[in-house]
Fold this protein.
Amino acid sequence: MRARRTSPPPAARPQRLQSVDLLRGVAIGLMVFYHFCYDLGYYGFADFDFYDSPFWTSFRTLILSLFLGLVGVSLWLAQGRGVKWRKVLRRTALIAVNALLISAVTWQLFGERFIYFGVLHFIVVASLLGLLFLRFYRLNLVLGLALLALGAYSHPGFDPRAWNWIGFMTHKPATEDYVPLVPWFGVVLLGLFAARWLSRRGSLSAAREPAWVQRARLLPLAGRHSLLIYMLHQPLLMGVLGLFA
């Protein structure tokens, strides 16, 4: 009697963690507040020094660190057990289109100060580059810390726009948003390491999330729709404030 052929069980879908969405919601909320204050200055309602003030530069660093660390965590959750290329390419293409849209709009608004390698441009490159590091564990910790340290190095050869997206520039380029690979890809690698470290201990699981995290609604919702909020919040803020300028 011929044995019945059984089909393999379907691959487990990557779990979406409420805690990760909540943290991303916190990051997007802080970013909206940051841009609201920036817009107040843009329209002359306030006078904030976003370029040299330790408070505002540290605040921006905090927001970026939270966002980009979660890029690493999310990359591990979604692709750590096998790269799903269709999903990767679809998601990356969506972010890339929005990044190009931001470049086009900011060219109209700011001219030569347009955004050519901001946070979305960085996420596109880092999401693809990060796939090469999914196999590593402790090496991601070492490389991540090394890239953070390398952020202090500078060389005039990296000052031209063709190269300063890598990092190592001697001065901040004239652009409204700038997130170079070095040191910020180090934060993504640290996120990858942290996700794998927590996974090994069983902590990166919906079953281990506190009850208050599972009950949260607004921040996780914002975290799940962070790209939409990112794209819409500035036109809305500038439109409303522009009515009173």
Q: What stands out?
A: The chain has a mean pLDDT of 92. Residues 18-204+216-244 form one domain.
